[in-house]
Amino acid sequence: MQLTVKGKQIDVGDALRQHIDSNLRSEIEKYFGSALEANVVMSRDAVMFTADIDVHVGRGIDVQASGQADDAYVAFDNACDRIAKQLRRYKRRLRDHHKNAARAEDALSAQHYVLAPEPEEDGAEPVGDDALIVAEMKTEIPTLTPRDAAMRMDLGGKPVLMFRLASNGRLNVVYRREDGNIGWIDPQM
């Protein structure tokens, strides 16, 4: 596993880096012998330290967690515990996903765009009919069941996920509702 540890406005010393490396590797290897990569970003805001962890477990499966505390080690340990809890909770379904890798070939290729927000000035006129594109990248729309899509959305910390429904191939969406539940949109064509 390739591990990257960075600090935002703080210096991540060797002792903290070693603590992160040994603990994160051991937690991930409990559930997955071979995660691809992990990124840890440590930051400080006033008196609180924040640890953001992003682990790429397999193709299309990212697990994200964050932790805060008044000590950098405790902040990392909180985030690492959340990663371990998510991996433990979804281990069986993630392993089944890897066994059924044939479904991954059914994924659609798509273009993902990031658009600039509209100007907030009342008198400003839009320059054209098209929005300003800030970034564009390739992405895949996987073929999943609604349960697997909700799991991937939770693991990745995403508010919404588009997927192809495994039973009929139609495009569907799962999203996090304001009340904390997960919504599922299945258009009837």
Report on this structure.
It is found in: Cytoplasm. This is Ribosome hibernation promoting factor. With 189 residues, the protein is of the alpha+beta class. The protein has 2 domains: 98 residues, Double Stranded RNA Binding Domain; 85 residues, Sigma 54 modulation/S30EA ribosomal protein, C-terminal domain (SHC Adaptor Protein, 2-Layer Sandwich), CATH 3.30.505.50. Helix content is 30%, strand content 38%. The strands form 3 sheets. Strands 1-2-3-4 form a 4-stranded mixed beta sheet. A 4-stranded mixed beta sheet has the order 7-8-9-10. Helix 1 runs parallel beside helix 2. The longest helix is centred in the middle third of the chain and has 28 residues. The chain is globular, with a radius of gyration of 19 Å. The mean pLDDT is 82.
Brief description of this entry?
The chain is built from 3 helices and 10 strands, in the order E-H-E-E-E-H-E-E-E-H-E-E-E.
Write the layout of secondary structure elements.
Layout: E1 2-8, H1 14-31, E2 37-45, E3 48-58, E4 61-69, H2 72-99, E5 108-115, E6 133-141, E7 143-144, H3 146-156, E8 160-165, E9 171-176, E10 182-185
Helix pairs in contact: 1-2
